[in-house]
Amino acid sequence: MKNEKILVICVLCCTFIFLVGCSAIFMEDSSVSGKELSVAEDHEILTYFREKYPDYTIIKCGEEDVTGNGFKDLIVIHNRNKEQNSMVVIMNNGDGDYGFSNELPAPAENQQIEFKDIDNKPPIEFIVSGSKGSNFGLAIFRMVEGEIVDLFADGFEDCC
Ligand SMILES: [Ca+2]
């Protein structure tokens, strides 16, 4: 009888630990989905973009000073039309004013934005990668006089 009680307690403990574990995984998952944009939902430049283009679906952002003026800019990958995703850099002029770069096609799925100083001189370059079905591609970009310039691409067109 005593053994049975211990067994029941053990089973209850295991169930409790299992449930706590599950809820921890669930909470982690929900926080990951909240981080998908890579910046806070109320990010200043993101808010500006949303107010300007309320119809756009924002897929991914990346925040860095890609123009080299000392103020952090925002790269936004969005789905303006259902056919193709686009990316744009919203340039922070530092005085509360923002400028928009040219728009380029962006990957259809699994979009990632990374920042890397490729040539050891400012401004920092950024790498956009992603996929479309089984096609994976990436490209390296640099901001030149307010324009996104494609420095190198590998399979990028096929993933956009
Ligand atoms: Ca900047």
What is the structure about, briefly put?
The protein has 2 domains: 1-35; 44-159, no CATH class. The chain is built from 2 helices and 9 strands; from the N terminus they run ααβββββββββ. It has helices at residues 2-34, 44-52; strands at 57-64, 73-79, 85-92, 98-100, 104-106, 109-116, 125-132, 135-144, 147-154.
Description:
By secondary structure, this protein is α+β, with helices and mostly antiparallel strands. It has 2 domains: 1-35; 44-159, no CATH class. The protein is 26% helix and 39% strand. The protein has 2 helices and 9 strands. It has helices at residues 2-34, 44-52, and strands at residues 57-64, 73-79, 85-92, 98-100, 104-106, 109-116, 125-132, 135-144, 147-154. Strands 1, 2, 3, 4 and 5 form a 5-stranded antiparallel beta sheet that branches. Strands 6-7-8-9 form a 4-stranded antiparallel beta sheet, with no helix packed on it. A hairpin with an 8-residue loop joins β6 and β7. The protein is elongated, with a radius of gyration of 22 Å. The model is unreliable at 26-35 (pLDDT under 50).
Question: Secondary-structure blueprint of this entry?
Answer:
Blueprint: H1 2-34, H2 44-52, E1 57-64, E2 73-79, E3 85-92, E4 98-100, E5 104-106, E6 109-116, E7 125-132, E8 135-144, E9 147-154
Antiparallel strand pairs: 1-2, 2-3, 3-4, 3-5, 6-7, 7-8, 8-9
The structure holds calcium ion.
The site of calcium ion (CA) has 7 residues, from β3.
From the structure above, extract its key features.
alpha+beta; 2 domains; four-stranded antiparallel beta sheet; single chain; 26% helix; five-stranded antiparallel beta sheet
